[in-house]
Amino acid sequence: MSTKFFAIIAIVLWVATAAFVGFKFISGTTVTATDGREAIVLETSERDFILAEMRGFLVAVQEIISAANDNDMSAVKETAHRVGRAEVESVPPETMLKLPMAFKQLGMSTHDGFDEVGLAAEIGPEAVLESLEANLGKCISCHEAYSFSVGN
Ligand code: HEC
User: Fold this and answer.
1) Ligand 1 site: residues with CB under 6 angstroms?
2) Fewest beta carbons within 10 Å, which of 84, 86, 88, 152?
């Protein structure tokens, strides 16, 4: 068989792999869960990583409400920054491929929403709570649509 033949096979495989990775990046790896949500299939360590981030979100929500009640705008800024876009712990690429596009966008938008809460602290506690309320809508819509399931 000619070298050209192998070169063509290599190119076809490369294109197929690139297309598969692109497809995965958008669709993720999901199954329909018993409760009707889309369950993203992860390994235990990947799920633990994301759930730890989730618990960090909940802590931040409590801290922000508490700081707003105390009129402590610098504490609001500090907490909001901790869960904002700049401090996002990077998700490993192989996990990224398992997350559907809409999930990734909603996740990023939640981090951005915390940055907006931090900016609202320049205005005052009412603006902080309004901005936090809007951001909590993203937690709710993601939880309504997705869950995690462990593949192995
Ligand atoms: C992009 C999607 C997404 C967003 C946005 C999101 N979550 Fe989650 N969260 C999940 C999924 C999926 C689970 C796992 C649920 C399941 O498997 O039933 C979860 C679980 C949790 C848990 C349980 C953690 C544990 O240890 O079991 C908490 C608490 C939580 N989220 C808080 C939040 C808060 C607060 C926000 C908003 C500030 C938020 N989440 C935003 C997807 C999201």
Assistant:
1) 51, 54-55, 57-58, 61, 103, 106-107, 110, 138-139, 142-143, 146-148
2) 152
